[in-house]
Each structure stands twice: as C-alpha cells, then as structure tokens.
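Repro:
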Amino acid sequence: MDVDTVLLEADEKMSGAVLHTQQEFNTLNTGKANPNMVENLSVTVEAYGGSSMQIKEMAAVTTPDARTIQIQPWDKSVVKEIEKAIQTAKLGLNPLNDGSVIRIPIPELSGERRRELIKVAHNMAEEGRISIRHARKDALDQFKKMQKDSTITEDDLKRLEKDIQTETDNSIQKIGRELETKEKELKTI
C-alpha cells in the first residue's frame, strides 16, 4: 500500500464517521417533525420474500405540518410492517395507521426528555470521534510500518503524522459543530 492510498482511506473513514454521526443526529426527536427520523428505518417485508428495505424506498415520507410525519406507502400491503418497524425502533413515536397512510404525531418534549436527548447526542458525537481516532491510528500504524520498511523517510513520517492529525482535528470539529447545532435545536424548540 502506498502513502496516497493510506491517506485516501483515512479520509474516507473520517468522512464516513462524520456522515454517520450526522445521520444519527437526524434520528433524534427534537419535538419537530422531520422525515429523517423514520425514513432510514429498515422494514422486513414478508410480501417481498422477507427482504429488508428502508422506509424511504417503499413510501413517500412527508411532513404536512410541524408536528406530523406522514408515510404513504406505494404498496398498501406493507402498511402494517412499516407501522411495526416504527414501534420497535424505540423512537418514542406512536404511529397512527388508517389502513393506507401512517401518521406520526410528534409529541411536545418535556425539559427532562430534552436533557436526555442532549446526553444521547453527546454519546453519538463521542462514538463518531472514536471512529475518527481509530481511522487516525490505523493510518499512523501503516505509516510507521512504511518507515520501518524504509518505504518512507523519518521526515516523511513526521509530515504524514501532521497531515493525518490535521484531518483528524477537522473531522472532530465538524462533529462538534453538528453537536452544537443539535443541542441548540433540542433546547429551543
């Protein structure tokens, strides 16, 4: 493996960690309807041979108002499976099924629930930061091996360590900014 490949892999892993953390933040109920809260949930559909699909792949997910998520499946036979997936996801949501459309009223958040969700967001952010640090460690280990094998010089190693640390810091800052935004959202709604 060459230096560019290691750098590219590290960058992809760090970007992936940031993206995953952002997606995790989107699942948090902020008291405001957001399709991201449910559209990536996996549903096992017996009608399709027991295959697993995301809600957004099998239904239109909309927010007709600030406190309601509406899911309109393209195939009415999967309504029950979608409803069950939402209930088992433990999102604190109670879907209402009228046979063809699922409506999910978003409850007002209590102060205590807001504090709990902020803690959950902090845990999600920490998991993202840990993933970024793992990517940094993997890259540094590979660079040290290259230096030991005389593929790169000690000066190259120092420069690459600095480059990887810069990328690590930038990725962690992105997660920090996302966390700050989510915290403000949870506190002010």
